[in-house]
């Protein structure tokens, strides 16, 4: 049993830390804990001594990019490093089929204008041929030839009964199936002469002989007359354009004026709906007391709605009948005009046929400047290009001349004027069929 000893030291209560009141500002500043700040300063000094702060260094000094890899890994794990990744295999694979062009008009569609003939594919093996080749490879042949002696002599004399039967078969006509083949009929107009579109109705030559005014070095009187004529045409066209612009402007001003008058009338009608009789402190105001000028319309019953519906249907029917009547009258007028034009053309063709060879060379040379008012087709004859050299552009030397005009346009207009071609409108773009691209299923191809 241990010996119990009396405690040593003072038996008084522990003395408290003798310190004045900490409520003062001075005492608080004196005893503040700055350990964390001192530790941070020490760490900063150590980092500066070792080479600088990490967060202030660039990434090139802190990190390195390993592009080679560890050379010992392929030796230690040859099984895993020899097989490429699936992502690398997908990226390295490149299809032989080119990508679909996303342009609106790819250049691959541009051809020489000749449509290739459609032909069946012959560079593949069908299922039937594949089955036959497999049977042949296995030793099974479909056709076997059996050598037999000739049992029929073609040079022998036939028996009388057989001869009579043969003659009877020859004399009997063969049964011809009743197949009606309709022959293609040429149109009626193929034998008729083309109708000239010249104002005189006479035949226009393919190439009109130009006058002296069209020369690059013309005589002064002819050139002056043609210049004055073309100037008058240009002035008339400009006056017509200005008159159309003025008429359009007046029309727009009248429309704007009528719209303004309608808006003013509507505003006056809205103002008249409210009474302006209320007064407050000597001032009159129309918005103080809102009172409707007319009674609120009552709701229509079913009978009234049906009556309105019947009235609208009757009005629609009458309008349709009026339009139909006008259309029928127009069709009759068109038929009458077409008949008159046909008779006039026939008479002119008859007169030309009677004239025949009698007309002189001067009569053959008709100008193509003035065309007939009633033209053929939906579109008008294209205007002739202005072939006029200005006075300051006239050259005395043939070496400095610049050729003008377009033979292709002249030829096209000549064909239209002679009635051999119909005037058409230029279509810059043509609708193309939508191409559908599909991926070939290569696993369905058979290989022997």
UniProtKB/TrEMBL annotation:
Keyword annotations: Nucleus, Ribosome biogenesis
Subcellular location per the Swiss-Prot or TrEMBL entry: Nucleus, Nucleolus; Nucleus, Nucleoplasm
Keyword Nucleus assigned: yes
Biased composition regions of type Basic and acidic residues, renumbered to the chain: 311-325
Pfam family, one: Nop53
Keyword Metal-binding set for record: no
Compositional bias annotation for Basic residues: 20-29
Coiled coil ranges: none
Renumbered residue ranges of the record's region Disordered: 1-29, 253-325
Family stated for the protein in its record: Belongs to the NOP53 family.
Functional note: May play a role in ribosome biogenesis.
Record's protein name: Ribosome biogenesis protein NOP53
